[in-house]
Amino acid sequence: MRKKVIKVSNLKLGGKNSIVIKGMIKTSLEDNKNFLKEVKLLKQEGCQILRVAIEKEGDLKVIDRLRKLIDIPLEADIHFNYRLALSALEKGVDCLRLNPLNIYKKSHLTKIAKLAKEKSTPIRVGVNSGGFKKRMDSRELAQAMVKKVFSYVEFLESLNFKRIMVSAKAESCLATILANQILYKKLPYPIHLGLTATGPLYEGLIKSCLTLGILIYQGIGSAIRVSLNSSSWEEVRTAGWILQSLGKGYFYPEIISCPTCSRCKVDLKKKVEKFKEMVYKNKDSLYNKNMKVALMGCVVNGPGEASTSDLGLAFAGRRALLFKRGKIIKAIEERGSLDTLLYFLKRS
Questions:
Q1: Which of 37, 150, 159, 192 is 20 to 30 A removed from 30 (C-alpha atoms)?
Q2: Domain ranges of the chain
Q3: Over the range 207-217, which residues count as b (16 or more CB within 10 Å of their CB) and which as e?
């Protein structure tokens, strides 16, 4: 089903518009130094909508602080206290996230919808599995989340409020996939994709890539937020790579490398990590981000097996072959070879 287009500030979500990357502030709002650092990193990594949790009245001042720091839309994440939603709207946030499991009184929601309509501010109806009190299998949980979303959306529509985005997140990959497939078939509104409580970093990465990758491949999703037990900028970077891996945008040059074997005479893992950091530090000066760069451990793997790459190095002892689209340009010294590769990348 083609999704309705809604605007979050200057961004359009839904329809044929590109999938938007969301990020969320994790630093305490009282920790000014690290708060500023985190906000800047999120913007640098490509966060397009910034979400902030508003727990109490005193937190509302962060909205004015953020307006001075960045020029990307702000989403206020509100739980339990409907008055905070009203105050956030008065402060001019660009989007509200409401949880149907803890802001559910119709009188409260009516007041929120009325003011949101006056302000032309969209509401994300966001259900998380953690709000349910009983244990359910994946299919039961998917149905329970969808039911909550449907009833909330139905009431908003009865108030003639239709600037709506929806989301249904669980720690279960299967429940999240099933719930979002149903939402996609039944509702015309943009879908915000994500998982919740993904666990340790490695496992969280696998769950996120698997679940979100499947849904996006099926054409589901207008916004994406990756949730990891890690820094917020890593979440945004991961979201970018999920989208790029599925051909939904280009955010960084892609680095490929062989898995190495006994033929490899260099510390390829170290070189790959070093070059990755070089690329990220220089990404704003890279003219073409739709590039594939290969770092191969020996001349067997490159340039032959890396002929689909735009640029690459194949290491051979203290020397390295610099190649472009499968053709060798020249042999260079292994020392300083990464700098040479970056030089060519910047000029591609």
A1: 192
A2: 6-245, 254-346
A3: bbeebbeebbe
